[in-house]
Automatic annotation (TrEMBL):
It comes from Marihabitans asiaticum. It holds the Pfam family ABM. Signal peptide: none annotated. Residues 12-84 form the ABM domain. This is ABM domain-containing protein. InterPro entries: ABM_dom, ABM_predict, Dimeric_a/b-barrel. Keywords: Membrane, Transmembrane, Transmembrane helix. The chain crosses the membrane at residues 132-150, 162-185.
Length: 195
């Protein structure tokens, strides 16, 4: 029912699922979700789960669960216990989208929903490539802010200088510079497969 993580991926994997439930079935949904969490807790590598609804009247439930590795996730997802649990919700829930996140790869593309039927979502770039791209955005930003804010903040306590730097750096990195750098490095982080 969900996109399998890339075999190259290591480290924790978070699965985000949007499930549609009729609002009048809220109590049943709570019980069904808690039963799934209770089952998942018995599997090695389970790190936690949770859910949120945009509003009490919403039919969409955004659910997350996390395992310590793709192998642990695969064990859970292929287990007979999970399959039996999912079958008990057949008349209660409908999965509308599934997404895997293994780290900070969200910087490398716009947030996207993968339809449940779309099992060929692109794999995130390796973490070392993510680290290199972030370094190329973070280093010049930190260096520039260190020089620009040195004189105006002379004599300030360290926490105040760091707070001011973050107030400038985080919006700049999030909305302007990191998206630019990730587009610039996209051919390297997401090379086209040879045909």
């Amino acid at each position: 029912m969900s996109t399998p993580p890339s075999p190259d991926t290591t480290g924790p994997v978070t699965v985000a699922i949007t499930r549609r439930v009729d609002p009048e079935d809220e109590i049943l949904m709570h019980a069904w979700a808690e039963a799934g969490t209770t089952l998942a807790q018995r599997f090695p590598g389970f790190l936690g789960s949770g859910w949120v609804r945009p509003s009490p009247q919403s039919a969409d439930w955004h659910m997350l669960y996390r395992f310590d590795s793709p192998a642990s996730l695969a064990t859970w997802q292929s287990s007979p216990e999970r399959n039996r649990w999912l079958s008990t919700g057949t008349n209660l829930v409908r999965d509308t989208r599934v997404e895997h996140r293994t780290g900070i790869e969200g910087w490398f593309d716009e947030p996207a929903d993968h339809a449940v039927e779309d099992l060929d979502a692109p794999a995130p770039p390796p973490r070392w490539k993510q680290m290199v791209v972030i370094f190329f955005a973070f280093f010049p930003t930190s260096l520039a802010l260190t020089y620009l804010l040195a004189a105006p903040t002379d004599g300030w306590p360290a926490w105040a200088r760091v707070l001011l730097t973050c107030a400038f750096a985080i919006p700049w990195m999030t909305y302007v510079f990191l998206p630019f750098v990730t587009r610039l490095f996209h051919p390297w982080t997401q090379p086209r497969p040879r045909t």
